[in-house]
Specification:
Dna Ligase, domain 1, Glycoprotein, Type 4 Pilin, binds adenosine-5'-diphosphate, binds magnesium ion
């Protein structure tokens, strides 16, 4: 077996690979850029080599720098993870030339599969079902329109060299086909330096379902079943699960067999993923093959019990696969939530900064329940603009889908993450979505279920009532502690009150508390009562509270006059006052917030790519104002409402600080 491997990556995936290497007794080498000196993957590896400045094009994707790190550390092999150099044919070739093993497929397979036209032609030849379309050269817009008509609208216009959702357009008529062809071609030239375009049928409301395969160097290829990845935002996967709630055994087997046939046709070895879109009648069509370890591989590991990274390493060393197709089973159900530093309350804009609090739920590997958290950060880590904004991949596994969903929902509620904006509230709200719970999903799920973006989930009044009961009992504990520790002269006259008005989510609950040794009886104005029990003590940031026979898990922050509470995708300010304070408060003036509606401020540090409006122009609600790049993503900033542009303060190409004013309105 290899003595030492270098991991040409960072973040959670570098940590994930190091874990398996350690388990196998292999030494590990990390590489790091200037900003990653203290990163988790560097701490976990046996050795680490500095490779350059923070931007990836000065460190993680510079082939020569990785090569010299390999030589310096005398590693025998390189695992590329995903992203960065993982699908770079030149990198695989460079390693081959130096006699260093690339823990991935042969460079020829990377090249063939990296091109959508070539790979589709090959797939067709191998008997794989592909999306109906035209794979020849398309001369101009006129030809594009002709071909689109032949295929039948809607069509998808795609760049052959495309990836990451770039260079793709949907067209529903001649005019859109004409325009789509032009803009796809432009985007393809600019992003990939390759303007070849093809057109295929656009499958409406499909599911994205993919097959994980493993192939050794001795001719054995197997498939590890499917992953359902339909929950996507802007063609980026957000939640994945295995198995798919949609496939039947026959379709699964057919997709598996075709995936293996495709792998064989390119002499594939290592782990790989064949992506399909599946229509509502379970017709499936090949999209592309990803020739690398996939972000969402853990859900497959959880239902099959197979360590995919270990198999990649063994295959690269030359071992035969020790498992056969008949040994691959589906055991239970697994779900993955990608926790991104993206603020759902601010239109999912990337958020950066220091993680001031990081307390994920405890990992558990029990017989009936698994909680797994793959991460590359720790409390105090910095999320920078240079890399993608994934913080962690939280996975749950249980015997049934319902149970796995419940474990995920609870684990999200227990996940403490502060200092940066993150999408945990959004993930929680998906877990509570009726269609998602039924497994009734397509790639249009997020657009359809969250048409106006994400707003804090509105909880129903009975749930608010329970939260009010819990918070009043918790507040009482604070009050007791306060009277004990102040040592104030009036201590003997202070008694902790039992009557409160708890305000949250637009409701005011009149509450009377009767505490005993094990909890409190909470009585509401309408005479209904509930029993509240908890081990919570003031200072704990997570409260597990039993209310009658239900458990609520809440993140609580003590603030003046009450708590800030987060649970189930909702973010609540809970104000707790006694009757007199409550009555007085209705006479007080409301604090006036500064009026920022006349400014477009930059929501995160980044670079201004372009401005789409000019001074004096009238803009409509939702109209694109400008594009800011941060964390590998282009973020479109739109007008909140109708208005007139008074002044534009910055120019394209300029870097921006957070809250910097980009545009002023009349
Ligand atoms: P996979 O194909 O493995 O399921 P994705 O398609 O989601 O993963 O991501 C492909 C690549 O894009 C990965 O290498 C990852 O580093 C990068 N990526 C994923 N999410 C984001 C994001 N939100 N912003 C920028 N890059 C991302
Ligand atoms: P990329 O290389 O950018 O990942 P893919 O070809 O894998 O490009 O497509 C990305 C996503 O776009 C898919 O997951 C799917 O949601 C959607 N998509 C791609 N092709 C089609 C199509 N013909 N019809 C409908 N949706 C499609
Ligand atoms: Mg894809």
């Amino acid at each position: 077996m290899f003595n030492k491997i270098l991991i040409a990556n960072r973040g959670e995936i570098a940590c994930r690979i190091i874990k398996t290497a350690k388990k196998m007794g292999i030494k590990t080498v990390a590489v790091y850029s200037d900003t990653d000196v203290d990163a988790l993957h560097v701490k976990m590896a046996d050795e680490a080599v500095h490779i350059g400045a923070a931007p990836a094009n000065q460190s993680y994707i510079v082939i020569d720098k990785i090569l010299s790190a390999v030589k310096k550390s005398k590693a025998d092999a390189v695992h590329p993870g995903y992203g960065f150099l993982s699908e770079n044919k030149m990198f695989a070739e460079a390693l081959e030339r130096e006699n260093i093993v690339f823990i991935g497929p042969p460079s020829g397979a990377i090249e063939t599969m990296g091109d959508k036209i070539t790979s589709k032609k090959l797939a067709k030849k191998a008997g794989v079902s592909t999306v109906p379309g035209y794979l020849g050269l398309i001369e101009d817009e006129e030809a594009a329109v002709k071909i689109s008509n032949k295929i039948g609208y809607p069509v998808m216009i795609k760049a052959s060299a495309g990836g990451g959702g770039k260079g793709m357009r949907v067209a529903w008529n001649d005019q859109e086909a004409q325009q789509g062809f032009k803009s796809s071609k432009n985007e393809a030239t600019n992003s990939f330096g390759d303007d070849r375009i093809f057109i295929e049928k656009y499958v409406t409301k499909p599911r994205h379902i993919e097959i994980q395969i493993l192939a050794d160097k001795h001719g054995k290829t197997i498939y590890l079943n499917e992953r359902e990845c339909s929950i996507q935002r802007r063609n980026q996967k957000v939640i994945e699960e295995a198995p798919s709630p949609f496939l039947d055994d026959k379709t699964r087997e057919e997709m598996g067999k075709q995936s293996c046939a495709l792998a064989k046709a390119v002499s594939y070895t290592s782990a790989g993923t064949v992506e399909f879109i599946v229509d509502e009648n379970r017709n499936f069509y090949f999209l592309e093959m990803n020739t690398r370890l996939q972000v969402e591989h853990p859900v497959t590991e959880l239902i099959t019990g197979i360590d995919i990274v270990e198999n990649m390493i063994r295959i690269a060393w030359g071992e035969k696969l020790s498992i056969s197709q008949k040994d691959v089973h589906i055991n239970g159900w697994a779900i993955e939530s990608r926790i991104y530093a993206e603020d759902p309350f601010r239109n999912f804009l990337p958020s950066i900064g220091r993680i001031t609090r990081y307390r994920p739920p405890d990992e558990r590997f029990d017989q009936a329940l698994i909680v797994r958290n793959d991460t590359g950060v720790f409390e105090g880590s910095e999320i920078s603009i240079h890399y993608d904004p994934m913080i962690a991949k939280l996975c749950s596994w249980a015997k049934s889908r319902t149970e796995a969903l419940r474990v995920m929902s609870d684990s999200l509620d227990e996940f403490e993450l502060d200092g940066i904006g993150h999408n945990i509230p959004f993930l929680s709200s998906v877990m509570r979505n009726k269609k998602f719970i039924k497994g009734d999903i397509t790639t249009a799920f997020i657009e359809e279920e969250f048409p106006d973006g994400f707003k804090s989930v509105k909880l129903d009044s009975s749930l608010l009532k329970s939260i009010a009961a819990a918070c009043s009992a918790m507040y009482r504990l604070f009050e007791i502690r306060r009277t004990r520790i102040t040592g104030r002269m009036d201590n003997h006259t202070r008694v902790v009150e039992n009557d409160w008005v708890v305000s949250l989510g637009g409701h005011n609950f009149d509450i009377n508390l009767k505490a005993d040794k094990t909890g409190s009886m909470v009585k509401f104005l309408d005479k209904s009562t509930v029993r509240v029990e908890s081990n919570w003590v003031p200072g704990d940031s997570i409260a597990k509270v039993k209310i009658e026979d239900k458990i609520l898990i809440m993140k609580v922050n003590k603030v003046t006059g009450g708590f800030r509470v987060r649970l189930l995708g909702s973010d609540l300010d809970v104000l707790i006052r006694n009757k007199r304070q409550f009555e007085l408060s209705s006479h007080m003036l409301r604090k006036i917030e500064p009026d920022m509606t006349k400014f477009l401020v930059c929501p995160m540090p980044g670079m201004l790519i372009k401005v789409d409006v000019s001074e004096g122009e009238e803009v409509q609600e939702g109209q694109t104002l400008c594009v800011v790049e941060a964390m590998k993503m282009e973020n479109v900033l739109r007008a909140d409402k109708k208005g007139v542009i008074k002044k534009i303060n910055v120019e394209a190409g300029q870097s921006l600080a957070v809250d910097e004013v980009i545009i002023e309105f009349e």
